[in-house]
Amino acid sequence: MARKNDAFYFDSFRKHAELSCQAAALLGEVMRSYNIEEFKSAVDKMHEIEQAADEIKHEINDALVTAFVTPIEREDIAMLSENLDTVTDRIEGVLHRLYFDNITEIRPDALELVEMIERACTEMCALLEDLPQFKRSKTLRKHVIAINDTEEEADHAYIRAMRTLHTTETDALKVFGWHEVYTFLEYCVDSCEHVADTVSSIVMKNS
What we know:
By secondary structure, the protein is mainly α.
């Protein structure tokens, strides 16, 4: 395998983040115009995005096996790639739980959380766009803080949603299903924060 240049890794991170944004946008579209009849098509589209993200992760891992020199430590490259992949996996996980828990209508507080996922993914895309110039970037830290703030906001929204669910819903199956959906929605924003924290660590090591 030919040696990959430094741009390969940063371009791969950016493409992976863009796929996460596509996944978040699709999830938001599905949840805002909820239609059980069209759900199978949405699941298939989401799986295509997740598979494309997996392919990027595999390409990065394959490159690391033969790489002699990398732009940042190979362990950090592998960790950032894995954390980016987790974002798309978690977003797909929300869609799966809506499907196999047979959610028939969307609760308003779930839409609040999906908006936070979209916002966190947008900031994550901007963050990965800045990463190649991290030593000169004046906005990278702003994106990290914005993701951290959104994660904290999502934590509070998750607690409120779960409290409302368990104090107002009497159908045990609905409680079980929405418990899973809310948890995975919150996981998505957590996963974006893990990406931001990994980028912060990389910047500190290399500054």
